[in-house]
């Protein structure tokens, strides 16, 4: 990459031919202020100048144009797009067919009308959308910014759209960046600026950008007029993380350009007074817009199925037409020679021979019967979906008071998929939990500090949760003190800036992001901030401080501390500084208390050295008040590394190494010792309370807050130094040498600092215990110190396990003291890595690993991530609904398992299969073993079914009711997801009640989802809140984002965004079910309606010589679907509720009807079609016979048939409608009235028009005819009697669960109001533990009896699942056991019978005696384990038996004993032995 | 998409509202419509709830059916006005191209259409370079037999029965839809420049001697132009008005029907019939509707009984089931 610009520079004056070739890959940008090369005269205006240059390459300007159409191009372009839809082409084709005289069935113009109507509606919708886009574009295009004007020789205000590539733009703080700009100058003395990229990637932290090398030296104001450099860079691309190019200065020198030099459009400038840059990419060539893909389009499962049925209809249409054509051919043949009077010859007098007659008839029939493919189907579905989305959005029970957000539907066309979900893949952190990290307890140096007071405080928050949230509705985003602060200027500034932001945010998305951002910048609610310190530890901290304060001026102050106190001191230092937390104070603009180091790495020259110690270094760079009033964060992170590299530190380092290391010690760093003393002054007097911590992740904030509670307050962080206020010591300033940021592979972060007291170079590492524990300095058991260390470690490990069992997130804190030599050595390789061109990331990773070894363990922390409200209840409901819930988390196994226990995903009395394999082979063996075990548990499943494969038609719900749970860690998951094992893994997972994947990477998450989706053909839903869930959300059929704490990325990728996890239950169980059932019924009705209508015409063909004649007036024929019969079905499709929300929530198993596609499956479709055929027969032949041998004419006979059809449709809809509101009545009435009104008007309007029917006065005549009325009464009733009868019969004899649910609601209407109130709206205090005992026992009864029901049903279903049976269980089979399955629930909630659940269960079901503790009653499979090769890692087995034991223990002990204890007994032994150094906790104390 | 964001943006873009401020929230309105809580009738289709419907249908339909049936059967008695029909079988007047083959403008007396008939009339549009009036296949195939009815008297003498030619077509057809070409000239003049349909013997202005029943407004013609719905149909030919209330219009006796056979139906296996009938309020004699009503009513009643039995049997078991489980 470095070479390319070099070559470019070399051939700069080269021949134009070569130039052009090169420009294929590169873009050259020059200053617009300079005359273009080759053009002699200085160009005047911008436009001609651009045209001159545009000859070589076309550069987009900054005008944003997201509209698709212009006024002129709208019609052709829109039509073109609409004809991409096959259905439209079909309808237009049919309509055009009418223009062929030989085959036309209708008046050509009339036939076009419905198609044009549909096209017009769609076009209007598109136009409206395009117009709103245009308006928002216009707004954005007319934002202002400062552009350097050649004429006025200063920056002038221009609109965004006027910015061109090569313009110089000056941006002030908090302005949004209008284009991709190369940073040339910054008001920051270091040539830095900060941008906030939240609108691009959702990350709320600030990113650092740096002035292009070569310009940073410019001390004076940057003058665009003197800019003569040429920039060569890549063609526009959408890679946000990459930018490469080089700048060639006028003097021929060139410098590389990196992504650190580029300010991306859409980002916001923060924390920097002003910057100047040159526009590189503008408008649609900016990376932000290139990344902006259009709206998501997904096709729902129902729609796919429907499309398949549409194809069936096409086939049916062709068959009918073909039949009719053949019939016509025969008919023509019969009458051909007979000189029949009714035969109409061709215009030349010859009769048509049979074959062409048949062909014409075929085409005409297709036109006549085209209604079979409902033209309005797609439009109606769109309308219904939009309305459904509207109602979901409007549901007040999905509104979250706390965050003032309701559910958002981002994808409009998959609402009904919500009702068919079978698998839920959930993230844990932030999804199940609040992601409000609360420091809970810690252990330092092997001593545990339980923080009991803290626990009590948290418990209080738990209780007072609801009130708390009422009081601080925004989760502390704006501390009250700050808001009420007596700084009018600040407030005014804040407000003006906010309103300005409001004004400027043209695009909706941008505005939304900004609002999210303002809510999210501070994570900390009072609950997280006010940590109550443990008195013991607090005392030790103060003692430590006192010691140090007295010894600080001595040679090695830390040596005066005991090892424990030293550890405590380091522990808190690490907590305070080993993070990327940025300190801001709300009341004051961010003070840049800048120590003016010119360099971030060791001193280069004597001048610098001297300058560093002049008093003027303080407050030099403080920016003006008001310019940076908004809190901002600076995150040095990894970008610091590059900073070092840029300054040529490598050279200096080598030089220094040559000079010997002692010099390193003697240079400026020793100043730190007195540095901290001097720096107490300027900001130290600020009240502590004003500090706000802004962290990338809530864990960090929690730790910093915890440290602050122990008086170790982080008071300031700049990219090169951290200030900490310590008890008795005052402010210490640590020089920050490196920050090795957190990444998910290393699972740790480190900072390298120079300790101001000892002048040592320290590495503080904070990370997952499993990783950090492995990185500790191996300690010998020989000396006492080593043994002590070992003991500390084992104790810490012990406590870590304890924390994990409690469900706390654990972090280990460790430290390493680097000698100068070590540091220098590492630094050199590190700098090499940084300056590497290829695989720089890899090298940096290696470099970090080299640093983070031989650590000294300081302690560990336990952070509580509290469960969100209502998570256990929601999970219970979802599972009852037959949903299989998989939790995919990056957390460690123990934590995940315990959260799973807490949210009732795992029951304590159920078996847990833990799958931790160290190798592919072991994983395979384990899987086999587990499979054998699982199959032996469920005898109905033969091993054969595995080889058969997965019958996708088997409803997954049968497997969900019982079965063990599976816990698998990331490494095993990686093995299990291999091609050869995935089938086995999936089969095992399918049998498990729940699956817990721990330590999984984002990629693994999406792989799991993809696997389930493709292999099981199941509907999947992924829910998550963070960037790491994005891939999973995108892969799943339905992606749900939680608009929670971790940015907007998940939400941006999602189809639905919910404020909290608990809303998922209502979204799926109520709205999903409704949407599915409504849409399914509407689609079925559509097919029915059209088939029935077409049937009427088809039967008539038998009586008109198959001549494609229609007795129904063409106007009725064409507008019937569109006008007369469309409204009622839309109303029903939007509003119908088969079961009320209360019942759905109380009986979540009703959801299974959607999963099993009970409403709309091939069989229902064909039954529906058969019924349509029957009804059309009735509706045809009753008028036929009534008018047989009468003097009625064809259209006077056809009109009653139309009326009969209309009444039949409405009555049919009436039977199908479950909820009659006044809207339904109105719609039906409207349809009837509309039909008669239109008919009357139509039949009176014109005496000679509308050939051939010319229906003048027909309707009027008919309305005086009693036969008309008697037919209208008789035919619909006769047509619908069977349907009504069978519905009634089925409703009584084989009611579906849904019907039972409705009956239930009918019988006890008041009953279902209560549960809804409590479970959805109200905050249930605490967890299930706090429920009244009565309710608890109900749950047990429900669980047990449900089990029985499903087991019974599984027995009956089993044959259906075999491949021969075609996988379609009949309703009869299904209905009866289901009723047994659901009725117990109902009974279980009757208080009188709920007290002894056990006996009921045993009596109630045949398999009931085979109860939970499987391992006890079935020891058989276990011994066989030992025959498996590669046993070394098969520790799952022990856990298996342990779980069994645990289960039985817990069944008795749960009510009285603390659960943790038992968990603690068993869980450590389930951890892989290879991972924890000291073995499992049970043995630890024995070992040491 | 757009719809979702709009409401939010207004709130979002602004500054975060200070707590306590009466800020606009995104809380949806708690109205019955938006929360889908509209008062609703929720019928549940079970045997118990549906069986009244069946009984009601039965109870309504059977009497209606009996009424219609009786009415229809009473038509046998030749009282009141007697309608004389001719019937054709196997005559496909509803053939698609046949139905289209007419020009309503011409029939309405539009002079331009008279001389330049619609293309739909092809191939019966022009004959020998003259426009056909009335054009089209329907008109061309007009029924042109003449039926005369005589009562055979006591001495085998034939007493012609007055057959009324007028009043057999729809009033609107006769007076609105069908019109002769305008003018005060004799009809022949007004039809000048046109030629008769190919199959016709006489031109259209010679269909009847009565000026009021000649040309396009000839009622036989109008009746014929109303194309029959089904291949077996009848068309009203003449009216026999009752003379007095005391005597039947057509008293019992022997009648003689004289048919001037012009209309060839044998070639296409057609049949011709002559029907004499009175009509009731239900129209002509057709027992079907009555029978259908009785049948459907009975079936409905029967199904109601079945449901009653099922409901009775099942309700007991279901009730017990509800209690025991």
Folded structure, characterized:
The complex is a heterodimer of chains A (1488) and B (325). With 1488 residues, chain A is an alpha+beta fold. In chain A, 50% of the residues lie in helices and 12% in strands. Chain A has 59 helices and 33 strands. Chain A has a nine-stranded mixed sheet, with helices on both faces. A nine-stranded antiparallel sheet of chain A has the order 17-16-26-25-24-23-22-21-20, sandwiched between helices. In chain A, strand 20 (713-718) and strand 21 form a beta hairpin. The longest helix of chain A is centred in the C-terminal third of the chain and has 39 residues, at 1063-1101. The model of chain A is unreliable at 1-23, 39-56, 465-523, 586-689, 939-961 and 1313-1488 (pLDDT under 50). Chain B is of the alpha+beta class. Chain B has helices at 2-12, 47-74, 96-100, 104-107, 111-115, 137-140, 171-177, 187-190, 219-225, 288-324; strands at residues 82-89, 126-127, 130-131, 146-152, 158-160, 233-240, 254-260, 271-277. The model of chain B is unreliable at 1-22 and 318-325 (pLDDT under 50). Classes of the chains: A alpha+beta (1488), B alpha+beta (325). Chains A and B meet through helix 11, strand 14, helix 15, helix 16 and helix 46 of A and helix 1, helix 2, helix 3, helix 4 and helix 7 of B.
